[in-house]
Amino acid sequence: MLAVGIDVGSISTKVVVIDGNKISHLIKPTGWSPRQVGLESYQEILEREGYNQNQVGYIVGTGYGRISLPFVHKVVTEITCHGRGASFLQPQTQLVIDVGGQDSKVIKIDRQGKVQNFIMNDKCAAGTGRFLQVMAATLGLEVSELAELGKLGELRSPQGDGAGSPLVINSMCTVFAESEVIGLLAQGVDKASIVAALHCSIAKRVAAMAKRIGVEGPVTFTGGVARNEGIRAKLEQELNVPVIVPPECQFAGALGAALIGQEILLRKRALH
Amino acid sequence: MTRSPIEDFFNLREVSILKIKEMKDKGIKVVGSYCTYCPTELILAAGAIPVSLCGTKEEPISAAERTLPRNLCPLIKSSYGFAVTDTCPFFYFSDLIVGETTCDGKKKMFEQMQQLKPVHVMELPTIKKSEASFQLWVEEIRRLRVWLEENLSVKITDEAIWQAIEIVNQERSLIKAICDLNQIDPPPLSGLSLLTVSWSRSFNSDKAETIRMLRDLKERLAVHQPDQVSVKQRILLTGCPVGLGTEKVIRLTEELGGAVVALENCSGYKTLELQTNTEYSDPIVALADKYLQIPCSCMSPNPYRLELLERMIHDFRIDAVIDLTWQACHTYNIEAYQVEQLVQQKGLPYLHLESDYSSTDLESLKVRIEALLEMAGNS
Ligand code: SF4
Ligand code: SF4
User: ipTM, 2 decimals?
Assistant: First the structure.
């Protein structure tokens, strides 16, 4: 029996299918209809992997669009799912930092991946993928270009070569930070240094949240923003512990959902 | 159809408005207050009706923001907003207002309120342990007595105060007995019912009747037979005051499948253990002793709140604690750290929420509460 996890995020929708030891995943932009994309990506992954719907034993939905999935058996919050997923990907981890499209969260988990405590920021865009999106647009860049450019900025900025004071973006608020960036561009500051400074600003913000919960031992960094190496490195610097980005970093939530589904299936089977 | 045991409490506020109007027409005075530190016994002893004016609705907040800063506790803004727009019948009926120097926001708001009605502000000491504090509070209660006597043109006798103490003690112990019924599993009262009972009773103009109603409710609930083993997570709510109109956290928690079995805040359990000791020879000293024990976060330090929480966690068999801070309430917000430590020591999940009276954050409250319930084993 297959266990399926569907994580409908604000920017992308992720699906994970667990078939015994085989794990497959799929990601798609969420677009305007979380309901539709949820169903579509579910059907697509089954087809791609050559499964049919009768083989599916349990579906768990999570993420901000979790309530718009009428076909799931159970809905679980992204907090619980990310804890489970990250623990599976990095079994030693006790702290998960997830920076997604419209929120960021820090989750403390036990060895089984059970949530002990969490903090979540979803009130403002600062420290989320949304912040990066807005800034990239202001700079006339794609979000995917930021990481590379940021690395360049690290080398080029005064901080990178060890002389002078580093460029900083003072404002955490997306609106104010945007005008700061426009101001810097007008002064002729190069984009790479600005990107490096933006990475630093997000990392500081997220690190402050993590410190509030208490940072112990290696941290697992997940969510779309975790793919940005510049932010990961800054975060490591701020927290003083290894910050590990698993290759499946975007799938932690969907994976956790699927794992919860699998557990329910096993429990059911044990009852029969 | 069986009558809901708390039905009488649903309409209590509305019914009271009419009753108070009648009594006012007969010349009986009404004294409004905003906080549990107000010694209502003196108001009763003066032959006046004490009413609670604490604002629990969002509507008047925008009017309040014409005078008060936006970044202020919504409870204060709502309270002031009702006053300045004259849209709360209880404020409208109030001849006099009693306030206390609890938190800075309220204290300074009362200065503004002076323009609308006669407001008497009591100086509440915030360090309980010192003898000087106790003496000050005794003197402040004496000063309130004189002020009430002058403004209501009555004499408040010791005997009348002792009588009022008797009534209030009785009311307290009845409400406590009702709240304590929720120690069993499943609880006879939902969180919303609990709130309805404990919050609404403060509007009743007739304490003797409140006592009758509470006694009746207690009897009806005592026969409640737990039908099955409950699978719901048992939640304790602590933090800033909650009333009908600001019950969103309770409502969401119960909609998501939890059971709010106990409320520690001001409309709930916070004051319920406190009885005025009738062994004292001076009723004012007896009152001072009781009121100064209230574990509000305005007190520094405030160990009794933690003791109370610890006991409640045990007695009500709590699975998780939600601590609600209204936006810009510094004292509860800071104390949340100590509450978190206590709850975590007990090995229970803890959730601190900061919110206001609007419904703009329902979704974000929901995901947090849902996650808390999952932590407490609901998955
Ligand atoms: S929380 Fe404190 S200040 Fe507020 S009503 Fe209760 S006792 Fe008064
Ligand atoms: S909730 Fe806090 S800030 Fe608001 S009135 Fe009560 S003590 Fe003051």
Answer: 0.90
